[in-house]
Amino acid sequence: MNIKITGSGSYIPTERVTNIDFAKHSFLNEDGSPFPYPNDVVAEKFLEITGIQERRYVTDDLCTSDIALLAAEKAISDAKIDPETLDYIILAHNFGDVKKGAIQSDILPSLATRVKHGLKIKNPKCVAYDILFGCPGWIEGVIQAYAFIKAGMAKKCLVIGSETLSRVVDIHDRDSMIYSDGAGATIIESTDETGGILSYESASFTHDEAYYLFFGNSFNTTHDPDIRYIKMYGRKIYEFALSNVPKAMAACLEKSGLPIEKVKKILIHQANEKMDEAIIHRFFKHYKQSPPDGVMPMSIHKLGNSSVATVPTLYDLLIKGAIENQSLAKGDVVLFASVGAGMNINAFVYQM
């Protein structure tokens, strides 16, 4: 028995927001003082560092669970399965359903429950639950689905990563330009086919790193202090990721028993192009090699950082031939990896 991804789907929001659209924002320092550079300089530097040219936001009528359902429906159709046969629905997110203009997160009932309801699944033995694991949430959901199937507790799981970060950003914080919305979903099944998930690695660093990403007040000191927004210590996250993610990737690959030469693609969380490139170079340096051309497909340039949705969306786009000059074939080895709030890191090695 092997455990494979048998179907995938994604939802890419329709609202395109370019860097130029941030020209009207009033960016501030943490203490509320005006940022000393004009917005065009901010946008130019931002593009140089992150590689993000534009990002996608959901329309006002949609929430995280809504787009999770849309991605799930596509994955189910792609896998050609009856949703009544699902044993688990695992939905990774971080902020719940936040309606446009609201100041509260809504996670009652769970978002996975809402997706199951939307899919009209009657089977009570299809267990639906949410997972909060920062940006690595979808990968962690896949690892959990793998464990359930390996243990004989399940045969078929739906794992979703969905987020609407546009609802929790501080428009006065330059970091708000990184974030975006989106959803990606996959069906994970036991199968007699060759390949599948070969190894995994997962870790939580909380002693010093727990609050590198957190909920904090707006940089605009006149805003209601009871309303919180996603905040981060970018330099600390960069240094943490560069130090720890390549190690986790190498440990995961070594568990698989495969040499580095077998890795066809690396699908890494799309948070910052420069950071991802640095991680990949350090990973290959561990094997005294340089990264092959095209080993790291990217979606961040047009889609931004949609947290838990970045990796499953990237996989879906890649598998559907929607990323220029990138493809996967039967037997190819893919290394999935992510880092994010917690601080959490995970990875798995997968053979197509």
Protein described:
This protein has helices spanning 39-50, 64-79, 111-118, 137-150, 234-256, 273-285, 300-303, 310-319; strands at residues 2-11, 15-18, 54-57, 88-92, 127-131, 156-164, 181-191, 196-204, 213-216, 229-232, 263-268, 333-340, 344-351. By secondary structure, the chain is of the alpha/beta class. Helix 2 (64-79) crosses helix 3 (111-118) and helix 5 crosses helix 6 (273-285). It is built from 8 helices and 13 strands. A 5-stranded mixed β-sheet has the order 1-7-6-4-5, with helices on both faces. Strands 8-13-12-11 form a 4-stranded mixed β-sheet, sandwiched between helices. Strands 2-3 form a two-stranded antiparallel sheet.
Descriptive key words:
alpha/beta, 352 residues
SSE layout:
Elements: E1 2-11, E2 15-18, H1 39-50, E3 54-57, H2 64-79, E4 88-92, H3 111-118, E5 127-131, H4 137-150, E6 156-164, E7 181-191, E8 196-204, E9 213-216, E10 229-232, H5 234-256, E11 263-268, H6 273-285, H7 300-303, H8 310-319, E12 333-340, E13 344-351
Helix pairs in contact: 2-3, 5-6
Principal-axis shape: globular
How many distinct helices? 8
The structural class is alpha/beta
Note the beta-strand portion.
15-25%
What's the gist of this structure?
With 352 residues, the protein is an alpha/beta fold.
